[in-house]
């Protein structure tokens, strides 16, 4: 009987504590809408608490065998008759030999009197009532009330009960608490602020608890569809986000219009976790995964200045911007964040409006625009049910196509001639030649398209014109000075490129890895310092003179350049007054007359050469008896360009 009563008490206690603890945890989860990583520790705490109670109150006591002394002690504790009555009676009856006081006659007499007095009290003990007890009754009554409350709650709110039990005992469950508001999150089109549609499935691109992936440093527009069972959604919602690495939640209020809320993450650079709360609904916490993209970590520049400038070379200059004298050779070393599939260097120079490359590119862009327009018209003609119904339209398009083909022929001839005349920088000539070679099959396609249109075969002409458009774009690409960089040595993250500074402009680096380009456009400016032409001026004499062959003429001039002069010459020509005179020839006045004024001969390529000497005409053997003597100063720049002509005085 004792075991049964104890079992009932322990079970009642276990039911009460388990039900109350479960109700408390479910209420906290309903209030906080906790995620699995919070519900899992709560489940562990719940199971530990219930298991501890079961062990201490039920399993361990029921597994032990109770002795007579333990049973009598329990009856003494629950009996109102007296404290330790049954234990005293047990010792007097069964353990008389072990009591020292009973060795004497007087002790035995006292024990007999105590036994006689305890016997009537023992008859008042009711073991059934003792085993039942008030405590056991209270626990059983409480367990009944708790179970009844649980049954009533489950019957009235089955959705809440089911969701709470599922979320408590299965932390990984997707079960949600009943709600009147529902929020569904999609990837959005920034222009329309509405969900994007998958091209493959044709369904809206919903964001699930698994999250969404976005290329590094790109924007992520979101559209949240907010609904309510009454048909009127709440007017506001709140988006919470934080870094996946930790930190505080950042709230972003959202305005709900026509059931839609919009938010845009600008340039996502690190993994993020976010969720949206509105009304009585909280979405799952959704991660934003980052697809890493390559970028340039560092740019090192080596400058090799022209020897004539006298500027010391520089190596290992950090920074992508280029600044140097025209003709400087530059080696660029790029350190990338990761290995890439392709690294392209694109140079864009600010060429003069009349430069050969500029004129050619402008003409090709005009040709491309006309060809694309013609392709569009031919496409519409090919989509009609009967091209024979409009022979005039096809013939007119064919004539336009033929005109374009003839114009392209002239353009290619001009490009080849320009490439042959280009001497300033050999790179320009190579670019022009590549662009001309890219037109190899283009002229044939354009001519065939014209003939096909003349025959009314718009479908065939459309195919040829499509190839023509691609070919013109290829010619423009050839003019863009696009170069594919190669890795340095065995490194797969270091690339190098060498260029010569010719014109100011800019350059950019285009990186691609697994179909993704770099996060930001890697563009840098180029500032080129041009070597200006030399300046020369005759100071004396300042006017025309009439002199004899014995005259001494004071001559003075100034010649200067920003980086130096290669040669300075004093030139004269003589013309006789005779009728059978010969054409005048240029002659250089020798050093014996002028003194050493040539920087190249003196070994001093100086920036300024002042000249002053006395021109003694009597020492010249090639002067006529009468005639005209013309003189001027000619200087040659130290800048080594065949297109830089000498500069002379008037």
TrEMBL record:
For the region Disordered, what residue ranges are annotated? 379-401
Membrane-traversing stretches:
37-59, 139-157
Q: What keywords were assigned to this record?
A: Membrane, Transmembrane, Transmembrane helix
What protein name is recorded for this chain? Uncharacterized protein
Q: Lineage of the source organism?
A: unclassified sequences, metagenomes, ecological metagenomes
